[in-house]
């Protein structure tokens, strides 16, 4: 069969890239959630607006982490 990929010949980086491409090709309805995952998603959506008030930018977080490493 033409077009098949010999996964054993791919580097780990290439395999991860392939996983990402496969994942991105799925629609949200293609990925079933367990009841626990669905409950957690609903909990997070309910607190989203309040959580946004405490959010920081990536730049701020990165600067804080960099300062802690010194």
**SS elements, strand count:** 0
Portion in helices: 55-70%
Q: Quote the distance from N terminus to C terminus.
A: 55 Å
- Give the DSSP E fraction (strand runs of 2 or more residues): under 5%
Task: Give the helix/strand class.
Answer: mainly alpha
Give helix and strand order, one letter per element, not per position.
HHH
Quick check: average pLDDT?
Answer: 94
Domain count: the total is: 1
Q: Which stretches are low in confidence, meaning pLDDT under 50 for 5 or more residues running?
A: none
What multimeric state do the chains show?
single chain
Biggest sheet descriptor:
none
What is the fold's blueprint, element by element?
Layout: H1 12-24, H2 35-52, H3 58-69
List its salient traits:
flat; 0% strand; 3 helices; mainly alpha
What's the short story on this structure?
The chain is mainly α and 70 residues long.
Describe what this molecule looks like in 3D.
The protein has 70 residues and is mostly helical. The protein has one domain. The chain is 61% helix and 0% strand. The protein is built from three helices and no strands. The protein has helices spanning 12-24, 35-52, 58-69. The termini are far apart. The mean pLDDT is 94.
């Amino acid at each position: 069969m033409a077009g098949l990929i010999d996964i054993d010949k791919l580097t780990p980086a290439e395999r991860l890239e392939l996983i990402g491409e496969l994942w991105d090709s799925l629609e949200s309805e293609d990925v079933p959630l367990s009841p626990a995952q669905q409950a957690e998603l609903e909990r997070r959506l309910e607190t989203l607006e309040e959580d946004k008030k405490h959010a920081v930018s990536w730049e701020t977080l990165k600067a804080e982490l960099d300062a802690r490493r010194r």
